[in-house]
Task: inverse folding
């Protein structure tokens, strides 16, 4: 179905190819998972399948990419729309219309599909993705996860032979992600659709893959028809695989079900020693609680939608608060209100001041928000210029923001235009800019979108360091593995209301939806990460 024959792609003014000498064949009716570190070229590979690279991106392409017998170099992307459906990392950039139902119909209109067929396909897609209640909603009013599902639906209505998905579950809550992936499974198994998907949250998808393409940092690609073999060798592996490696389970499990079958001896060995390791280290009776941020009776409306309803919350110095809940529960709205960007009834203060009244250096030193779409905050021509401006605005030593970026990302060409960065690297750039001001309150909205496991570990480490130094951190996230690694407290929102406010461990362990992989494998043993298991059994697995 899809063939890469000695493909190398170099972007304009780039020093090195983004992809190098790629030769891969993807058969019809398979789900192929594209894996690799942040910024390695996964999106380039996906965008070359429908010709966006190089027709839209520019640059040069050596070799050939063929899809269903068509060479992408000879066909414009619009002429492949009946064969390849493509959904980008940021679905909002691909929207053409204003209303959900119109967006689902747009591609079919472009392909001159008869009106009666269009109507039927729209209805089928609304039901398939569980978004029938959104049909008349304006796209600008949707949550990030709702936009993601609409974007997938907008290409499915054309009934393509190939579906290309770039980080399709990155903005979805666990239940919504399972629904989308179940839909993708049905499309592959029942309809024979060929799906090529990149995803950093491998814990969600690796068990469904028929094949893994591992993209290396140098742009080369290794083809692994056996996903378990790929995971056994890759540094990028989900927690269940990391646990299986440490415990020396064979065969290596890729799913919770398979891991639980192998884990009974491990659960027995952990039971008598786990108590002392699960005490909340933040529960220090001598600690003086200082509320950096205070929310009292906050109610916020978006038009007719009640986004937050009588929310009250204190965030203290040193807290790392994870705000979780379904898509549309009000998480992003709460963070925007804490940053002073949204007005409502009730009271919000940060370091004793209404954040909406703060400007300039006074704002930078008190509160910083890294939004879901970090590119909205970038304006300069190069990374170096962005970092230099951040240092000036925060009144800190030159090189502060750039140093933080290297700490988060690793070495990077600071003359790169921010628009040329991957989604994950742009997020790390904005995070470095915000951290340069050393704010009292740091707000992160879905901070692991586009991040591989190595980058996520660096992020967790720096958040723990900031919290230990007294920064209050609030993270709105669907990433249960990040919560397990770094959060001290869990706040659950549902329909704009706080339904749970407790310590992170007890909160996620008790939740069948938001529990991390290790907790599900070892239940009822209340450990959350492989690192905790290793600490509990330093002598190794039983």
Result:
């Amino acid at each position: 179905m899809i063939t890469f024959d000695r493909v190398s792609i170099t972007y304009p003014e780039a020093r090195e190819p983004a992809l190098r000498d790629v030769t891969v064949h993807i058969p019809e009716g398979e789900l192929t998972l594209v894996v690799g570190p942040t910024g390695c070229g996964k999106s380039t590979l996906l965008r070359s399948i429908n010709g966006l690279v190089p027709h839209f991106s520019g640059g040069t392409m050596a070799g050939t990419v063929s899809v269903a017998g068509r060479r992408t170099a000879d066909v414009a992307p619009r002429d492949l729309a009946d064969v390849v459906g493509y959904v980008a990392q940021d679905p909002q950039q691909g929207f053409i219309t204003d209303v959900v139902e119109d967006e689902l119909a747009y591609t079919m209109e472009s392909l001159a599909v008869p009106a009666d067929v269009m109507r039927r396909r729209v209805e089928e897609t609304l039901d398939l993705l569980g978004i029938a209640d959104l049909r008349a909603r304006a796209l600008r009013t949707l949550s990030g996860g709702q936009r993601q599902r609409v974007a997938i639906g907008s290409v499915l209505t054309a009934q393509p032979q190939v579906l290309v998905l770039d980080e399709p579950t990155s903005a979805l809550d666990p239940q919504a992600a399972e629904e989308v992936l179940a839909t993708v499974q049905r499309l592959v198994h029942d309809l024979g659709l060929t799906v090529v998907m990149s995803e950093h949250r491998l814990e969600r998808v690796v068990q469904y893959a028929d094949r893994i393409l591992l993209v290396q940092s140098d742009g080369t690609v290794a083809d692994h028809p056996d996903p378990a073999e790929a995971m056994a060798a890759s540094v990028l592996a989900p927690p269940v695989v990391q646990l299986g490696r440490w415990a020396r389970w064979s065969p290596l499990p890729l799913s919770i079900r398979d891991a639980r079958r192998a884990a009974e001896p491990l659960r027995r060995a952990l039971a008598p020693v786990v108590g002392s390791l699960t005490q909340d280290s933040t529960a220090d009776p001598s600690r003086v609680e200082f509320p950096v941020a205070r929310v009292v009776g906050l109610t916020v409306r978006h038009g007719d939608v009640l986004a937050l309803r009588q929310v009250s919350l204190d965030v203290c110095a040193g807290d790392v608060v994870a705000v979780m809940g379904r898509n549309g529960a009000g998480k992003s709205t709460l963070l925007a209100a804490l940053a002073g960007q949204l007005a409502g009834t009730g009271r919000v203060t940060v370091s004793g001041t209404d954040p909406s009244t703060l400007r300039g250096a006074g704002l930078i030193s008190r509160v910083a928000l890294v939004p879901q779409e970090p590119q909205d905050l970038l304006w300069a021509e190069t990374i170096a210029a962005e970092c230099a401006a951040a240092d000036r605005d925060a009144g800190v030593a030159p090189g502060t923001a750039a140093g933080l970026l290297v700490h988060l990302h690793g070495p990077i060409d600071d003359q790169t235009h921010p628009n040329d960065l991957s989604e994950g690297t742009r997020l790390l750039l904005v995070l470095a800019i915000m951290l340069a001001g050393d704010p009292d309150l740091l707000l992160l909205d879905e901070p692991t979108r586009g991040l591989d496991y190595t980058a996520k570990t660096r992020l967790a480490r720096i958040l723990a360091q900031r919290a230990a130094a007294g920064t209050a951190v609030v993270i709105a996230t669907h990433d249960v593995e990040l919560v397990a690694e770094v959060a001290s407290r869990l706040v659950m929102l549902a329909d704009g209301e706080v339904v749970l406010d407790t310590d992170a461990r007890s909160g996620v362990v008790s939740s069948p939806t938001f529990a991390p992989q290790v907790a599900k494998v070892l239940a009822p043993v209340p450990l959350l990460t492989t690192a905790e298991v290793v600490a509990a059994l330093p002598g190794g697995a039983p």
